[in-house]
Specification:
By secondary structure, the protein is of the alpha+beta class. The protein is built from 14 helices and 33 strands. The strands form 6 sheets. Strands 12-11-7-8-10-9-13-14-17-18-19-20 form a 12-stranded mixed β-sheet, with helices on both faces. Strands 21, 22, 23, 24, 26, 27, 28, 29, 31, 32 and 33 form an 11-stranded mixed β-sheet that branches. The radius of gyration is 33 Å and the shape is globular.
């Protein structure tokens, strides 16, 4: 019997390797291909003794064909794999990543470390992934842009029939309200949302979305600021970094790995979606390198209360935290009864205290400022100074804390209303630096960018910091009768008679500011400005007042006059800033105490932070009144508030301080006779 030999020819590109080994069987020529298109294998099973000239000819023809074929395969391959491209410190659009038809989309469920819906199993949150096909075809590993939200699967009604009735006496129990029906969840698997895709995926990122606990196809209960809202995105980040399990189905065992993730994650989003990046960051989760919260709610107390006062977000009179719970609760109907009972009807009912408005353990648990110590992510904060829904203090307080902790931090502010991201260029540089690791110098750039009055959002002015480092406190005092319009001056007054106003929610702040005379507010106005005045930071009001009842609202507006009633008025034309407080909380926001009617109390609080240049020809006005029709409760009209004018003071943060204010009041020199004005 002739002995059998196996001759194996292996080639990588144009390299040929010939090996000989024993084989028990006779076979024919076979061709194999490994995962690499450059790696080809030929096997010949030939009797060694029969290896005549004919066989040798076939043998070497096969070798030649293999070499030529391998070279042709190599020639067809792209010269270089598709990778992110950077220019001037920014990730650029890569043509190979841009084609949506080539994007890979899939969804999964990530297992968390909590059971918030009481079913005895760890909650799983629904996650959607969209990534370039090169993460499969080329083994490309990329950073992630991640957005999570309770809104993606749909929301409930804004019908005011299901809101709280604002007609409530101060420090008295509220009227009952109707519960809203549960939202019907929308599902379009594997897609959760299309946000962020066109901005980031073509620039070399994977985009990930998830639905918050108790919303959409995510298990659990919504808690509106509870711990699970921070731990859910933490679990997703842990999965992206290989520390948590992902499953192909909500109740399945087949796992899914994020083999395409570099371990560098950035988060962004607006409003509620901007709150959750901060929530995740406060857990200190490894891998979350940078966040860009846009108009985030950083404290539900500051969203629904103010200095001991029940105060509603602008445009949502009667909304409270339990109303928002119903608005987002689009999750599993089978767990609705449990969630409603445990979260809305026990935890929220007992904790939110719509009677007093005091700051308590319930609200502290939904305040991210005390949790900042664990945060490691680089922070680019974005907010509007005229956002009366999620007010600017939400971002400023976190920005200040991040600076104190030594975190990389920048702030972008504009002059419009709710929402509004930084320019894409600024966001791109931030993520490029902290997710791709490109040294583009963002940490050496000015910390604050502020869009000035009347400018577009991409025309921001850079400042060393916010508040402006040149801002100095300047004190102003009340002179004369404020039922018409008294004077707002920097000289202290002497021995004035206190003035009394009567509460009446029927008149809103705009009407009170424009009234020639009214008993429902006090108005004090500065001289007309002959040079612009730049305000930057927190204005503070110190009021000494007495009330003829145990409780009342106190509202303060800072306005620019004359009032521009035009429909084309800019957001900066009239209201400069606002603030609200409950005089019962004059000593502490933690506990209000009933007032003794007729006794004077000192009430001090900050107005919302601002950065505004008040124009030449305008006057700065201080408006003091009781119930704010657009924000506070509406008690029965008639409560009297008496203000001690001599002991009341407004402090403004003026860039340049007292000299800048004095300059703004200087009378411009009269032109010399015979010299034309230019």
């Amino acid at each position: 019997m002739n002995s059998l030999r196996l001759f194996e020819i292996e080639t990588r590109a144009a390299e040929i390797k010939l090996t000989e080994q024993e084989s028990p069987d006779f076979g024919f020529c076979r061709r194999y291909s490994t995962n690499s298109s450059h790696h080809l294998l030929l096997k010949f099973y030939i009797y060694k003794e029969s290896f005549d000239m004919h066989c040798r000819l076939l043998f070497f023809i096969a070798i030649a064909g293999l070499v030529l074929g391998s070279a042709a395969v190599a020639q067809d391959e792209p010269a270089k794999p598709s990778v992110p491209v950077f220019k001037d410190g920014e990730a650029q659009i890569v043509a190979e990543f841009k084609e949506e038809k080539n994007w890979i989309r899939h969804d999964l469920w990530v297992e968390t470390q909590f059971d918030s819906d009481g079913d005895g199993k760890q909650d799983r949150v629904h996650v959607a992934v969209t990534r370039p096909q090169q993460t499969d075809t080329q083994g490309l590993v990329l950073p992630v842009i991640y957005e999570t939200s309770p809104y993606f699967a749909g929301t409930g009604t804004n019908n005011r029939d299901f809101f709280w009735n604002p007609h409530q006496e101060i420090d008295q129990p509220p009227p009952t309200r109707l519960f809203a029906p549960q939202p019907i969840a929308k599902s379009n698997r594997p897609i959760i949302s299309s946000s962020q895709l066109r901005e980031w995926l073509p620039r070399g990122y994977v985009v990930v979305h998830s639905s918050s606990p108790g919303t959409g196809l995510s298990q659990g209960c919504p808690t509106v600021g509870g711990d699970n809202e921070a731990l859910a995105p933490k679990a997703v980040i842990d999965w992206l970094c290989g520390r948590a399990k992902g499953f192909k189905e909500i109740d399945g065992d087949e796992t899914v790995d994020a083999f395409w993730c570099s371990g560098k994650i950035g988060m962004t989003g607006t409003s509620y979606n901007g709150t959750l990046p901060l929530a995740a960051a406060t857990t200190g989760v490894a891998g979350l390198e940078a966040i860009i919260p846009i108009a985030p709610n950083t404290s539900y107390y500051h969203y629904y209360r103010s200095n001991g006062l029940v105060r509603h977000p602008g445009g949502y009179m009667g909304e409270d935290i339990d109303v928002l719970y119903e608005f987002i609760h689009s999750g599993n109907p089978d767990r609705k009864e449990y969630c409603d009972c445990e979260v809305r009807d026990v935890e929220m009912r007992d904790g939110m205290d719509r009677t007093s408005g005091d700051y308590n353990a319930f609200w502290k648990g939904r305040d991210y400022l005390p949790k900042m110590s664990g945060m490691k992510a680089a922070l680019l904060m974005s907010h509007a100074f005229n956002d009366w829904n999620v007010m600017p203090e939400h971002s400023v307080r976190i920005y200040e804390a991040a600076k104190q902790q030594g975190l990389p931090v920048q702030a972008y502010f504009h002059q419009d209303g709710h929402g509004g991201p930084p320019p894409l260029k600024q966001m791109n540089r931030w993520f490029t630096r902290y997710l791709h690791g490109v040294e583009n110098g963002v940490e050496q750039e000015p910390r604050a960018r502020i869009v000035r009055e009347g400018k577009k959002h991409d025309e921001a002015t850079s400042y060393a910091d916010y508040p402006n480092p040149e801002a100095r406190e300047v004190a102003f005092y009340l002179h004369g009768g404020g039922l018409t319009a008294g004077k707002l001056l920097t000289q202290p007054p002497a021995h004035q008679t206190p003035q009394t106003i009567v509460d009446n929610y029927s008149f809103d702040g705009a009407a009170l500011a424009q009234a020639d005379w009214t008993q429902h507010r006090l108005l004090y106005v500065s001289p007309k400005l002959t040079a612009p005045v730049h305000l930057s930071g927190y204005a503070q009001i110190d009021v000494r007042l007495a009330i003829n009842k145990p409780a009342a609202n106190l509202s303060v507006w800072l306005v620019s006059l004359p009032w521009n009633a035009s429909s084309r008025a800019l957001t900066t034309d009239n209201v400069i800033t606002r603030g609200w407080a409950d005089p019962q909380n004059h000593a502490s926001i933690d506990r209000g105490m009933p007032l003794t009617p007729g006794q004077f109390y000192n009430v001090s609080f900050d107005l919302q932070p601002d950065d505004q240049v008040v124009a030449v020809g305008q006057q700065i006005g201080l408006l003091v009144f009781s119930s704010d029709r657009d924000f506070t409760l509406h008690p029965q009209p008639g409560t009297e508030l008496t203000v001690d004018l001599d002991q009341t003071r407004l402090t403004l943060p003026i860039v340049g301080g007292q000299p800048a204010w004095d300059h703004a009041l200087e009378r411009p020199p009269a032109p010399r006779r015979g010299v034309p004005l230019k």
